[in-house]
Design goal:
Length: 419
């Protein structure tokens, strides 16, 4: 079928994206498990990250969309052994619906192909792999520490604890092993047949069909997107395969080509597509703190194109060279990313420390500061912190501090080492 290219403004594209990501919905009065599942349906994947200076990344997208909630709800659905979700490299390491295991057979086969090469790690460590497989088969899902603690001393000089841990990771990538939940933040590994339903394991999806389905989901999650955006959502390796999937979806009437004003690059228009179910709200009336690994901003090229937000995580940047802070969170107000703030949960003192706060060019400080203050109060309460302290590092700190004080929030000021 043929399609006529329609036109969108940059603001319309932003609102479509945020609506597709769940930011046009009213936050529930009380968050229940069903709200987490519905949000997950829109996101598709929930990226996992271990940094816990404020809150681990996989807790944040639900907070951003639903408001304060009991993280034990998420733990029961995602981190415990569950029939709902499983971990795999769907983007980076991420939670995904367990039924999606079958969609990733092509990626698992690619890992197995690499592993079969004579120069591969798995080929060189076949003995360790066999031992790990046998342990999981005989004992069921295990933590890496269980293998270490129970390894027979007589295994001899070939035994290498780091190799055993690596074996679990390689087997997971290859699809032989799955994650049977976590204890604390430590994974429990089991053979895939011990964790993934038999009907899912028995029905791997052919690569072309899997790519088309995943591109369809990425398009639905973004609302409007370029090929590069769709390629990044699930971290595909071959943009030509994504283009083929887009063409199939256009022919099926699920995607329509659009031109987004302002998305041009070097004077050239950028091709984009809108999902047929994508809604265009008149306005987005939400404020939110975003994790660096939220789908709204995780693809930095898209964050720049859609929100004019030039973003870099600075956790690996030496402290004296950081521009914005260790783990600065993008701040959304309406359909604009108006700033970024580096937060630290000082649990010993029960204080949420605003280590820095900065405005973006599109900010409206007088109107935006009270909205940011409201989100900081919500964030502190969510983390069980009694007070908020704002440093002086950053051009938004004074405005945010005044807004917090005006709202009669318990407030301190503290000096940051960069000041």
């Amino acid at each position: 079928m043929t399609s006529t290219t329609t036109s969108l403004s940059a603001g319309e594209a932003r609102r479509i994206t945020l609506a597709a990501q769940g930011f046009s919905r009213r936050m529930p009065d009380a968050v229940a498990s069903r709200h987490l599942h519905r949000a997950m349906d829109r996101l598709g994947v929930l990226q996992i990250d271990s940094v816990n200076v404020f809150a681990r990344s996989h807790y944040m997208p639900m907070f951003s969309r639903l408001g304060a909630y009991d993280t034990a709800l998420l733990d029961r659905s995602f981190l415990s052994r569950t029939t709902h979700y499983v971990e795999y490299l769907a983007h980076e390491a991420a939670f995904m619906p367990v039924e999606d295991w079958a969609l990733w057979d092509f990626r698992m086969r690619a890992w197995r192909h690499r592993a079969s090469r004579p120069d591969s790690w798995m080929h060189a460590n076949a003995r360790t792999l066999d031992w790990v497989r046998a342990e999981l088969r005989d004992r069921g899902p295990l933590r890496p520490a269980d293998l270490r603690d129970d390894a027979p001393r007589e295994r001899g000089p070939w035994w290498d604890w780091d190799a055993a841990k690596s074996a679990l990771e390689h087997l997971w990538r290859c699809g032989e092993v799955a994650i049977a939940g976590r204890i604390g933040f430590e994974r429990r590994y089991g053979l895939a047949e011990q964790i993934v339903p038999a009907n899912v394991l028995a029905a791997p999806v052919p690569e072309r069909d899997a790519l088309r389905e995943l591109v369809r989901r990425a398009a639905r999650s973004y609302g409007v997107a370029t090929v590069a955006d769709l390629n990044d959502y699930y971290r595909f390796r071959d943009q030509s395969a994504v283009r083929a999937a887009v063409a199939d979806l256009v022919d099926a009437g699920e995607l329509e080509p659009v031109a987004v004003r302002g998305w041009d690059r070097g004077g050239r228009a950028v091709s984009a597509w809108r999902h047929r179910d994508a809604a265009l709200p008149r306005r987005i009336d939400r404020a939110a703190l975003l994790t660096p690994f939220d789908p709204v901003v995780w693809f930095r090229d898209r964050a720049l194109r859609v929100f004019d937000f030039d973003y870099r995580i600075e956790i690996y940047v030496p402290a004296h060279k950081r521009r914005y802070g260790y783990y600065s969170l993008p701040v959304l107000v309406g359909d604009r990313i108006v700033g970024r703030t580096d937060l630290k949960a000082d649990r010993a003192a029960s204080v949420l420390r605003v280590q820095s706060a900065w405005w973006e060019p599109q900010a409206r400080p007088e109107a935006d500061a009270p909205r940011i203050a409201e989100e900081l109060v919500r964030a502190a309460a969510w983390q069980g912190l009694e007070r908020i302290s704002v440093s002086g590092w950053g051009d938004a700190t004074d405005a945010v501090a005044r807004a917090l004080h005006g709202g009669e929030a318990p407030l301190d000021r503290h000096a940051h080492p960069r000041e």
